[in-house]
Amino acid sequence: MRHIQEQSNIAFGTRTDNTRKWICMAAAALIAGILTGALVERRTFQVEAKISDTQLKLAEEVLRFHVLANSDSEEDQALKMKVKEEIISYMKKEIPDADSVEETKKWVSTHQKELENTARNVIKSEGYNYAVTARLTRSYFPDKTYGDVTFPAGDYEALRIEIGEAEGQNWWCVLYPNLCFIDSVNAVVPEEGKQELQTVLEEDEYEMVTAASKFKIKWFFFGRD
Question: Which residue range(s) make up the domain with 147?
Answer without folding.
Answer: 62-200
